Amino acid sequence: MTMNNEPTFNQADQFDEALALLAAGLSMAEVLAEAGEDAVWLRPMLELAAEVDGLKPALAVPPPQPSLDRLLAHAETLTAPAPTNRPQPVRHHSAWPRFTLSRLLFSTGLSTAIAVTLLLFICGLGSLLGGGLVLAAEGSLPGQALYPIKRLSETIQLNVAPDIRQRQRLEETFNQRRLEEVDRLTESNETASVTITGRIEALTETSITINGVTLNLAPKAAQRENLVVGARVRIEGETNATGELDASTVTLLEPLPPTPTPTATSTPLPTATPLPPTATATPVGQSTSDIIKIIPTPLPSPMQDNDATDDDERDERDSDEADDNSGPGSNNSGSSNDNTPDEDNSGPGSSNSGSDDDSVPDVDNSGPGNAEDDDVREFEITVEPDNDNSGSSGSGSDDNSGSGSSGSDDDHHDDNSGSGSSNSGSDDDDDNSGKGGGDDDDDD
Amino acid sequence: MTNEQVLLEKAKQLNPDGLREFHRRFYAMVARYVQFKVGDPRTVEDLCGEIFVRALEALRRGSAWRDSPQGWIMGIARNVVADHYRHRERVSEVELDEQLTSAEQMNPLQQAIQSERNRELVEAIQQLTDEQREVIVLRFMEGLDIQSVAQALDKKPGAIKGLQFRAMRTLAQLMQSRSMEEDVI
């Protein structure tokens, strides 16, 4: 072949011109005749171009249906919001929650590595500070400055637990701590807001017992008849100034245990604490989402934590607690996110359920405030006495761990929209020594 | 408005028939292009879906085509394929080519082609550089004009002319050396 190594602009232009003539309907012979001696190098290229064109029917492509389905499904998602805009990610009304530690920890992409890093960092920081920050935080109570660190440490441990068993053990341990915190708070007559999830262990005219904690419950509470021993509920309540717990809201999550629990510890017999006749006589409501609001009426009954079997269970948990610090590993399922006060405290945009948000001062900022009696504290307890941890921790406040709101946004660089302003067409022709008139017309 | 502009406008309005027609009009071209760049048929499917979703997004933003709908959507296809390789932390282009040509069993192109000559041609196309291969596929197989290819590859039309010349010249050389080998045998 008589080709140069580098194409001259003439050659490139000539080739394109020949293609245009072919596309315009001239025969190969006519085009080559027109080309004169350039036909020598033009011919193989033009023939090959025709051959490539003929290749198209030989190329089978995958069936179009999956792609079409995806397009239609995507269009479906676009029809709901305003037609001119893509759906915007949900924004918190405060900018702060976007940057909280817990959101970082639980955003789906970052979990384990950051959790480990943070744990190491906090431990390192703690030991640098002398006493060990995490250790110092161990004994803290809701409302105290170190309490968030305690909870963060627990959350990290949960996130790096090597397997589900270890994780369940840790969850039990931490839930046990919550109960102890309730005890200590009630002993110290301080006020804190509490959320407890679990099965009702006992029910009396004036109280409800769950996870070994007894709360005052108004006898004339609305829809109280739907509550029975064994039903799984979420109770929001407060410790009051007299060292008792008042239930303010009871939410029925599950009317009765799905199967009879093998251990007698989780569902004490009604004889231990007699039930009000209404509770036993009324059939259990079928709905799992009945919400029962109960007006808080503090009653002067003392704590009733005298169930022997329940105490046994607590002892078991205590023994578990001994080894709870053994070895964080790596598990980031993140299902316990709603246990972290960090999220709750991080700003007004967090996902706190319940009506007492506005009465909650920012715990992080409370500094020396643990002496203040009316410092309302808040945390949550989730205990499943029958070890049924499957999904229970998600029943409370809806944790929004990153939640993928930004979805597929990451790749929207310029989609070649308009391909820049440079190719307006006339800019290159001056290189091309005049020949090329209608060179671009060979479109089908 | 041209037919294609009407079509794209319908798709932008999320008219289901318009979307189907939009997809039908461009799917084969997009899929062939992707197939030339990616071996695995499942990946081709995935990337095609992604390309049309992104095209719709671009339509909705109002930042669609300038000169040619084909050039526009092929530009999106090119970006999606490039992203695909970026995400796979792709190695160099040369290695990619080697992989494609050596692993014939995973390449649907070779399987699909009955004629020996066509198979050789596809293999030769896959030995070209990335840009050359794109120009060959878009310009000579899909029949896009210079402007559309320029838009798709984000280059000037003059550059496309040079590219198509070099690509076809290299291809001719590759095919010639192949036939010479066969003659020797």
H/E element sequence of chain A: HHHHHHHHHEEEEEHEHHE
pLDDT < 50 stretches of chain B: 90-106
* Alpha-beta classification of chain A: alpha+beta
Taking all residues together, what is the mean pLDDT of chain A?
59
Based on Cα principal axes, name the global outline of chain B. elongated
Q: Biggest sheet of chain B, open or closed, and with what strands and sense?
A: none
Main β-sheet of chain A, in a few words?
Answer: 7 strands, mixed
Percent strand of chain A: 5-15%
Contiguous helical run count of chain B: 10
Number of distinct beta strands of chain A: 7
**Rg over CA atoms of chain A:** 35 Å
What percentage of residues of chain A falls in helices of 4 or more residues? 25-40%
Estimate the strand proportion of chain B. Answer: under 5%
Distance between the termini of chain A: 31 Å
Highlighted features:
heterodimer; A: 444 residues; alpha+beta; 2 domains; 7-stranded mixed β-sheet; 33% helix; elongated; B: 185 residues; mainly alpha
Can you walk through the features of this model?
The complex is a heterodimer of chains A (444) and B (185). With 444 residues, chain A is an alpha+beta fold. Chain A has two domains: 9-60; 96-395, no CATH class. Helices cover 33% and strands 11% of the residues of chain A. Chain A has twelve helices and seven strands. In chain A, helix 1 (9-23) runs antiparallel to helix 2 (28-35). The radius of gyration of chain A is 35 Å and the shape is elongated. The model of chain A is unreliable at 83-109, 260-379 and 382-444 (pLDDT under 50). Chain B is an all-alpha fold and 185 residues long. Chain B has one domain (3-184). Chain B has helices at residues 3-12, 16-37, 41-61, 69-87, 93-102, 108-112, 116-126, 130-141, 146-153, 157-184. Chain B is elongated and about 60 Å long.
In short:
The complex is a heterodimer of chains A (444) and B (185). Chain A has helices at residues 9-23, 28-35, 39-55, 65-79, 101-106, 111-128, 133-138, 147-159, 164-187, 277-281, 308-321, 341-345; strands at 192-203, 207-210, 213-216, 232-239, 245-254, 291-293, 377-382.
